[in-house]
Task: inverse folding
């Protein structure tokens, strides 16, 4: 927390911007925010130009001085400048995976190279060897909120799913292992386009209007058409897996899973999403609830952390 | 109904085929069907070859003689030959629209030529001028069962929807008339691939695994990419209209309508499907129910035809 | 926005009224509102009488002076007087249709006179020629919130539906055009009683306890009984149309549509309600969202206005 | 079961009627039915006139002779005559309450006379003193299938509900006892018109198109208007109770219960319907299931009768 | 409301506790609450120890002085001490039934002694004669919010249900009266463990993780096992009643009711819960709505109190 | 298929039993069945005693002779004797797992011994070392129909789930591996009591009235109470896992999963049930559908086996 009368220079997001009347004329009242929380700012000499240029959700560099007001502090803004995407560090605003994304990517490449089916391997190698794809893939989260909602989340989600899929392919030996692995690796690629990571994670226009399922099929289709002699049957099965991976119509798949591999893909996806989302909820600093997490809206429940005291007693007898 | 001892030669569909034991050895018991209804057939000298070749749902040419059995007649099959798609007339098995499909197509061409937006008109002209497209489009039904479930049904569905859409564009003047018309004309083109019309209407493999929404977007996307300079914004809006035209996720759209034109497309589609389906139910020969249709499963209700007697009385006072 | 120290006299609605303690004794803290927004007011010399007389949701004439407080302004109330319905202009608080209601009514009369069926025409003429009916009908909105939620909205809703219904009667020639038109014209008459327009649109007691469907059937029944020899069959069909026009039980119809005219009425009603509601959402001043409307709660989605920049680019190639 | 070669004369319902071909020409194959079960009949000399006159669901007097056929018996019809409603006894086909309906009606009159509120008592006395009403009320079932689906069922349903309602009025002393009793007595009167009891229980046309809730409100409204000075508030509350007694929109009430009396009416109605329906299911002769009833479709479950052996053991220790 | 400069000593709950910065250093800003409402408190000399000891939801004894701030009053805290459960009176924070719980318990004992079946009577006597059980049973509410959400609520809920059940056993004579009574008396005993009454009603850990249905079956099972020779059939039926008393899976019963007594238990439970909940909503002081209660969230509706004016007019004619 | 005039002696189940009239008096018409399918039987000299003794669903030893009738064969029963459970081999009627159950059990013992937590290991060892438990556990299916619906199915279901759970415990390192394994091993133990395997798989009385979730908790609770010093916290968590493993209330869990281990248990259970059910559907002999399975009712879909021809073509390019 900044001290009184301290001069500050910070890069923050504009959360609100309102014109207010004071006895000395109109001024702009700001609410800024970054990971540390919100900050109130007043700008006593606003110009029309600044009002036009600086909008809610913009990232700005603000300079000014902290002053006390009604027992709290607020920032008296001296200057405010809008920054473009290259002028600030996105990780200042959006959380980042706790794993090194390069390591995760390496694991994925290992799995790709383990694929026997030449058509599938060629397809996957084509995708994962593309440097531009890699950059945007590793930046992507797996969801706007809920599970893996951080930079690198998509890669982690896919890696964890492959580990589960490999085990499933051992347990259910009738399954086409390579097809299942391919389905896992490509099922969410539409999210790279659906979600934009600026100073927050949000939907792109095409993300909202078409959705990641459609965008993913389009992406994959283009890749498959680029490979001469890519088998029609395989095309059909892979597209079906992307289309159906949400499992039911109510959850946004236009088609339900109708192959054993598509069924497995859906259940593995669901398992990983729910497990990771629950772990993220458990991971949040224990607030006033202690043994329980706060209410988790997307699960419509509290999650039990356990009772440390009772737990300790449990261990005693061992 | 064929008479006793009559020699018959008919082209029918194999509805069932079962091996049965008789005191004289094994024989094949058939159930054949065509528009006139079912026909029982017995084949006393079956061969392995015929059993392999003739399968349920095949169209066959059967020759034989009608003989009485337990008070009814059955066909004693002398010869049975499987026919391929070109050897029989599909309209012998599948109902056909009561309107001339060429007239309907002409109306659609007229609407296409009324489009002002050059990009849209070029797109539509490209599609509708294609002779192969025309052939398969005019053969397609709009659904397997329920509404417009006959040859030419898709064209009729689309034509009726354009009439409603033109009125809607007058009533709601803020609407982009050309975009709405385009949406109506292309929204169900995926059905040409989704449904196969052989001796019955059924789903194709890709129809079941991908669905007409996905197939429609793919079809349109290919057409739009083939037009140099086709605007990105228009592409986005048209794809969104196809994707969302079922209105809700539960009904198979992966995305809900989010433009006014997509909203209208959905409601007009729904109106025409339900109205035509209801009219088809009313149109069936009145059986033992008279004032009411038989129970209409897809609507989960009976439809009231009206009481002719009371109706007559109504007219008297006029 | 009123200036400091300005003397004001305004007619506003009481949005909140609370007793507060100050170091100088108890006072009344008001929140007033009109179309321009909220206004804070303090009344330093409250009387028991005024507290009893002036209640939340009342319309009042307030006089007083604007004074600065904590950087903003508030109204120091000098006098406050409750007004009855005739002492203020309802359109000061409730939005009004952008169309002239007399023109809309004229269009409706034209449609009434086009009806061939004498029983139906007599019924409709009886209703629409009644001056008292006309007055309350033209004041009525079509809904409390969502679509046509303004004075004159009901008439506009019915007029737009007749335009769609006339087209539907052309497309589906088996339909009884006069019956369909009659259904459209009377289906929502219960809303005249269900909704009260005072300084806001709200439900009447009978509106909440009986609902507009029941009220509408009662209204119509009385009219039909007043016509000697009105046919029983027609009575039955018209009542059925009102009862079933919400389409499903979940949406408040005790009976689902079971005639083709009742089916069409429902789908046309739905189409117009959703289309107009969406257009109203699009019509709101574009706030911080630009290409998208704000979140539309009743549709559970954002509506896409389009991207002006991309749109412009689309037009270039033409 | 009739014996072979026995001459029979019976009054039965026509369940099916089909033309069949035999080596001796066309004949009519009938399926008749009454409480004793189905009976097959053949009519070797059918006339066009008889085919026109005798329809499925008609009650007919048939004379003929029982003859063996394929190891079973069938009736060779000599004559068949259609009967009108007065020529046969409805109780031959439709089950009848096990209680004397006059006794039940007497109990209801006793409850009516216990009502203190003069307006309510006058209303109820007017209804229940009407001889024509009494006749049709006592004949009515409370439902087509499920609970109280027999002649006299409606009266029994209402009587049982009043007993529960009187107790509820003691337990919840804030409740308006007379209003609750009135609601119970009139809530289902629309069923008298909704259901027709001929040789079976079925919906009337107005029953299907308007439903018993609407018909009940109309019936009551007419009665209330006939009483000079019947209070508006009471009218509103009673109509609301009929309208809302199904409890939710999904179950066919256009309005949910919004008074404590309407709430109680709904829950008491539900309790009695489910309890009686369950008792009827338990009452059916124990078939092959013994401890359990057969599957009860309307409850989607089996009902447990109990294990007589285990039960006996339970009693031993006492 | 405390006056300015008044010295106060109160026992209240800590609703919020936040560190704030002021120009004089950090302080603790409290929100306290009791039945009279919220109270703001500032603690200028906070210690680490107090911050650790006093948590949100704790009950504390606070001493201090009321001082004016921005036109309102706040408590300047001089000392704050956390109290344990025995140091304060729970009824200061949680509402209490308006009936004497000893009287209610007496009524329940009377019903227990009326049971004929010796096994059942022995079971119930064993439970209700237990002093520790009695104490916790009489303290328990029947729900956290909604119906009977006050101390003594569970006992009242059970007593009212027995009155209804006794009537039901008269109306449906096939029912096992003693079994039904037993079911009513034990169905919610799991709530004694599920809900904790401290300074508020909340779920216990086992209440959340196991639920009152499971806890109730466990409690009963232990009691039944303690009775030598308790019949297996009766055990099965009683456990089934507890398990199924919510009526459907969606409402938390793992099994639906499959005996007539379990069916009745469910419907009687539902009736009493909804009736009492509605009466509680009606009982709240009439606020700005007058004829209607405020919106009742758990019923998703307003409840109509009636129109006193219209009501009065109703009574006139009598 | 038995030949004509062949003398047969078979052990079969009675599927139907009906009295019929013939010209030679009453006889019993049977429908028998075993794995080979149905068989019609006639018993010309039935006795009252046999009618009483032999019931539908009984297993009987029948002797008799095959005779032709209407072109088919039927069994003329000479003697029929009811068998008790020990007199026939259950595997003659109920399918058996394709895996050796002893091998599967061995794998489970290996997993038990890998558990570190002493309390958990002691609990599991106690259960799995019990010979009587082993016998009934290895006989149990995992469901009446759908997945693992064969003898040994439960053991296989649990074994496959442990393999998936071990992988999940590697992927989600925060998870308590021993607790998760324990949950998997015990979650369905209630099915041993819920399902009875006689000549078919069916529910026991307690299975229907209490359900396997309740029965499972009871079973486990007894085991845990038998271990001195078994920790309360662990008890709570394990019971919670059994109670919540169906994931949602609608699927029969009275409580939703609220620990990460309970969440994982549910998703792994679901994955294995759906995967195995789908594989069983795929495994059925390909009938007339070829590329597709027959309609799978419990999944409400067809499952795609793939197109062998297209598949072959896919492999060519490799």
Result:
């Amino acid at each position: 927390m900044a001290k009184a009368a301290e001069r500050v220079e910070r890069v923050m997001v504009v959360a609100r911007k309102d014109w207010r009347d004071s006895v000395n004329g109109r001024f702009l009242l700001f609410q800024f925010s970054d990971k540390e929380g919100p900050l109130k700012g007043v700008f006593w000499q606003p110009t029309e130009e600044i009002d036009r240029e600086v909008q809610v959700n913009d990232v700005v560099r603000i300079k000014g001085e902290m002053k006390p007001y009604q027992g709290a502090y607020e920032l008296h803004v001296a200057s405010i400048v809008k920054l473009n995407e290259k002028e600030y560090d996105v990780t200042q605003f959006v959380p980042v995976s706790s794993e090194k994304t390069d390591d995760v990517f390496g694991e994925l490449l290992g799995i790709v190279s383990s694929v026997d089916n030449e058509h599938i391997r060629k397809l996957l190698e084509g995708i994962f060897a593309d440097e531009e794809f890699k950059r945007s893939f590793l930046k992507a989260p797996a969801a706007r909120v809920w599970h893996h909602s951080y930079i690198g989340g998509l890669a982690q989600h896919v890696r964890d799913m492959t580990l589960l899929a490999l085990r499933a392919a051992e347990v259910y030996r009738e399954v086409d292992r390579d097809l299942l692995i391919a389905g896992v690796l490509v099922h969410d690629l539409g999210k790279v386009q659906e979600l934009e990571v600026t100073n927050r994670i949000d939907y792109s226009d095409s993300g909202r209007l078409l959705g990641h399922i459609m965008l993913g099929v389009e992406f994959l289709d283009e890749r498959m058409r680029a490979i001469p002699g890519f088998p029609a049957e395989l095309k059909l099965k892979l597209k079906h897996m992307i289309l159906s991976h949400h499992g039911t119509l109510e959850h946004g798949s236009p088609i339900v899973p109708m192959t054993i591999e598509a069924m497995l893909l859906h259940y593995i996806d669901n398992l990983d999403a729910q497990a990771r989302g629950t772990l993220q909820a458990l991971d949040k600093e224990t607030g006033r609830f202690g043994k329980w997490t706060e209410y988790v809206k997307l699960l419509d429940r509290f999650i039990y952390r356990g009772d440390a005291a009772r737990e300790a007693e449990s261990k005693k007898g061992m």
